[in-house]
Amino acid sequence: MLSFITEKQSCWDRLSAEKRPVFIYGMGDGALKIMAVFRERNITVTGIFASDEFVRGHSFEGFRVQKLSEVEAEYDDFVVVLAFAAGYQEIVDKVHSIASRHTLYVPDVPVVGRGLFTYEYCVENAEKIQKVYDSLADDYSRKVYANIINFKISGRIEYLSAVTTPKADIYRKIIKPSLNEVYVDLGAYNGDTIRELLEFTRGKYAEIYALEPDRKNYKKLSKFTADMPNVFAYNAAAWCTDTELPFASKAGRQSAISVRAETLVTARSVDSIVNGNRPATIIKMDVEGFEREAIWGSAITISHDSPKLMVSLYHRNEDIFELPLLIMSLNPNYKLYIRHQLYIPAWETNLYATL
Questions:
Q1: Could you give the residue ranges of the DSSP H alpha helices within the chain?
Q2: pLDDT at res. 53
Q3: Alpha-carbon distance 94 to 252, whole Å?
Q4: Please, which pLDDT band fits residue 253 given cuts at 50, 70 and 90?
Q5: What CATH number belongs to 11-161?
Q6: Of the candidates 182, 180, 184, the residue with the CA atom closest to the CA atom of residue 193
Q7: If one looks up domain 177-312 in CATH, what number appears?
Q8: Which of 336, 349, 329, 296 is nearest to 110 (CA)?
Q9: How confident is the prediction for the chain on average, in pLDDT?
Q10: CA distances from 156 to 17, 86, 95 (A)
């Protein structure tokens, strides 16, 4: 069991044993999460650096933020710990360039929730992980699944670069959208994923239902879809039932349901929204760690209508096995695929379910 998991030692353990200087590359929430684990494991941070063009003499967590060129001039050999997400080719290329000169780790810390993704964590959940692996529809999905898990344990970016798939390939070879889709977009942001789908349908569709809980993002979404017929946009979160939820608005895509938030937002289930209307044919779920609730809110639709699914697998540690198993339990007829699009760390790792 789990023979496809070859990494047994976590990047945290390797960093704990390091004798060389350890520098964190980047600032922000990711760096704070990594530094919290460093404190728990007594890993010493030598300093913080950013790309030369971003350094303006500021400090972070008591460290003067240095330029990479400064660090390279002072130290012949040091370890780099990447602490931000890279989703564009230019930034990914820069990260790979640094990795070619220095030992580089990208520690996996969950976007939502607690705990670390280690080999021991995989052993604890071995039966579920193996079941997902065995249920995947093609060899490439199994390779992606194995590489993502080995990356999450080791923090080594070569596992990601070996299984990165262009978005166009996913649409053309797996989703294969028709010109008559009823598309449900959960976490619609500003309409970017609607635009993405329409690129592959020559702008054709039957109906679109779009849910976006963040008020500012919803305004952008509404503006984008204002002149589009048969588009129904909701300023609402995707959930397992129709209710209200505490919601924390943040910049861009990072807004999310939060028990500490004081603002309430409307929450809707897919089953409620499409009830009595044409059946959904594609459902996309990227809802910042609450995909499980969104799936339960789509349970009748998934079981009865078998829409194609596009589901994020990277917000919580358990998503990579719990979400595929949940979908299989609701509709065992699905073929399940996993693909990773260009991103460091293992964000944009998604599950695709089709008949």
A1: 11-16, 29-40, 68-74, 89-101, 119-124, 126-135, 139-154, 158-161, 167-170, 192-199, 215-225, 270-274, 291-296, 299-305, 319-330
A2: 82
A3: 24
A4: low
A5: 3.40.50.720
A6: 184
A7: 3.40.50.150
A8: 349
A9: 95
A10: 16, 14, 12
